[in-house]
Amino acid sequence: MRFTPPPGSTAELHNRLQTEPHWGYTIYRTTFSAQADAAFPTILRYLDACIKKSLFSECASYSESEKSPGVDPAIYQGTWAKYQPTVIEDAGASMESVRDHFEASVEGQGRRDLFNSDRMCIVIDEESLLTLLDASVEALEAEGPQHVHETTRFVKVLEAWPILDQYDSFPGWMKCSPRALWDLWKMMGDGDEMRNSWEDMDEMDEGVYCGP
Questions:
Q1: Is residue 128 part of a domain?
Q2: Do the domain assignments include residue 193?
Q3: Element (H or E) spanning 57, and its range?
Q4: Using 50, 70 and 90 to split pLDDT, how confident is the model at 146?
Q5: From CA 129, how far away is CA 37, in angstroms rounded?
Q6: Structural domain total, the chain
Q7: Does residue 110 lie within any of the structural domains?
């Protein structure tokens, strides 16, 4: 059977994973309390579930046409099997200190701009945490293929080495719906700047990136 090729960004990730051991975001936790301690494991599971759901929804959407054999599901299964986020707990860290730590870590490994995992990271601070307290993996998995974009829940995604100047309104990071993390990963491929996604944000999304 001849399968339909996956989207270029997905195919690129699949090809990169022939040499990269894994892919995924580095997640910085910067808020600490009894409430945060209790919620954080569920939030991590929720972020994973959002990325997985988006990934496999893409696979399904490319297999809906009766005239098309669809994409090879093994590509998506293999891609997900290598998904591995990294969690760093840094109490009270500011966005600037997170950027400094992340950039130093990437630079120390000689990986600057080599892969999306090295170009951006997630920050869960108190503001983000409060929007995620009611997140439910079970509710997400029970949803049908159609859903309304959420602007109520978000994480902050920070770009390493952003190109900024004194007149810039882009701060080098943006709020992102957990449901849009897979879309953002693809948008940041090929060396794209995060500002492009930030500038395309719809006014209706209340300052939260919800995907293209």
A1: yes
A2: yes
A3: helix 34-61
A4: low
A5: 11
A6: 1
A7: yes
